[in-house]
Write a structure and sequence with these properties.
By secondary structure, the chain is mostly helical. It has one domain. Helices cover about 50% and strands about 10% of the residues. It is built from five helices and two strands. It has helices at about 5-15, 30-40, 70-75, 80, 85-100, and strands spanning about 20-25, 55-60. The protein has a two-stranded parallel ribbon. The model has no long low-confidence stretch (mean pLDDT about 95).
Length: about 100
Amino acid sequence: MAEQDKIKALAEKYGAENLIIVFGLNQPFTLSILAETFKNGDPSYAGPLAGIALGLKSYHIFELKEFIPENIWEDQMEFKELETEDSLIENIKSVMEEIRNS
């Protein structure tokens, strides 16, 4: 079963209001396509979510820092955050917020 099919099954089982998608990818264009796919369906109409709007909200892990215990963030994400330019982090956050609000 493809990952998108698994997420579709979870959305059907638990409801979109009870799930979020969390990405760690640092490529804004790819993030926008993925977030759009899980919210409104595959924009290319080529994948398993073609025309299927799951209504899922997507976040980047950098947006969730305040919800993650500090010791876990330091252990798992601090280095990744330090190696990512601030301007890229802001761009990622902006892209993700734009998709959620569209």
